[in-house]
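<goal> How does this chain fold?
<sample>
Here is the protein in question

***
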Amino acid sequence: MTEPSGGSSERPRRPVVVPAIALTAFTAVGITALLGGLREAPEEPEALGQGAVIDQGQFTTKVVESRVTVERAQSRFQEDKRFVDVIFDVRNNGDETASVGSPPQKLETAFTLASFAGSLIKIDPAFPEDAGPNTFAQGKGGTTRQLHPGVTSQVVLRYRLKDTDPPPKQITLDVASFEWEPDFNNVTPRWKMVATEAGDKWLPEIKARVTLPVKEGDGA
């Protein structure tokens, strides 16, 4: 028997159904490839708490605690002062005396700092500018701003509380680290904060993220 004119011996093809989610994924991968390939998501910093020990290269730092400290008035004409203290045990692993320093005022300038407190690149919640901080190390003869090589010192990061302000329930700190390498214009190595170039800026890499409860402390 002959086929009718214009007919075909092939059966009509069934339409292929592609799930919408597969099309979406394929499109996303295609666009990503056009833009330069898949990018790795940045790793989350290590989440640490009280008692943690952080290898910062230049320093080995133990996170001791955070507490409210009350400095009692010395006379009836004065008032008690309240502070939030964050306390660390810090060993200077370098061969030279290092500075206790202060936390950076801006993230963009943090990479230029080589002090211990300079590595505390973010503190949450942020305290008012007039609250400090005052940073110092406890020494046998009182307080100091120096960290001597090979010595472990207790370092205090201190913020003043106003009379009516309650202390925060907890404090979270982003901590950077240092590496021993040559400078840009000098082949002599030195301790430099580990940072990544981002456009025209250098942003510190977060070594660890530390969260501490703020305890009600004793009088100073």
The helical segments are 20-34. The CA atoms of residues 39 and 210 lie 27 Å apart. Residues 1-12, 14-41 have pLDDT under 50 and may be disordered. The first strand starts at residue 46 and ends at 48.
